[in-house]
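User: I'm preparing a small set of examples for a lab meeting where we compare how different chains pack in three dimensions. I only have the primary sequence for this one, and I'd like the structure in token form so I can line it up with the others. Please keep the answer compact; I'll paste it straight into my notes.
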Amino acid sequence: MSKLSFYLAASTLLATLLVSPVHAQGKQDFTKPIHVSANQEELDIKSNTLVLTDNVVVTQGSLLIKADKLEASGSDDAEHADTFIARGTPALYEQTLEDNSRIRAQAETIIYYQSKQLVIMEGDAVVEQGSSILRGERITHDLAAQKVLVEKGDSQQERVTTIFTPKKPSSEHNDDKQSEQ
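Assistant: Understood. Below is the structure token output for the 181-residue chain.
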């Protein structure tokens, strides 16, 4: 695979690194150009590995990824990068969704396996949407099965946390209840 085709494939898939955990993504973002910047970029053609380091920022529309290091790799016979690993203190993902709500995710390490459609966030992983929060040492999202597993760390004191915020009742629904009284 040529350096340019690997780089283009890696850049195209960078935008999906952390977006995939979201069921209702900002679809318009995927039609926008992908901008990737870092203080350093290294491409190893023999190992099909692209490494971006120091102040890595990826944007595509409302999507924003920040990491200390981002690595994209594929097997020797792969046409495209398949594994993406973002590391940071923490690595961060933000995006505006179709309903204009904002989603934010962070972890020390975020791994995306494109062919398996699997996202794994490790190290104080947190996903926030509105006032709803998922928190654990490890959050695994199987995109194909649409399943999320939140796991605690090894410490006995650690537990996973989920905070659900109920929808506010509509004013029409409240008016009906008041008229019944």
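A couple of notes for your slides: The longest helix spans residues 3-14. The beta strands are 35-37, 40-44, 49-60, 63-73, 83-96, 102-113, 118-129, 132-142, 147-151, 161-163.

User: Perfect, thanks.
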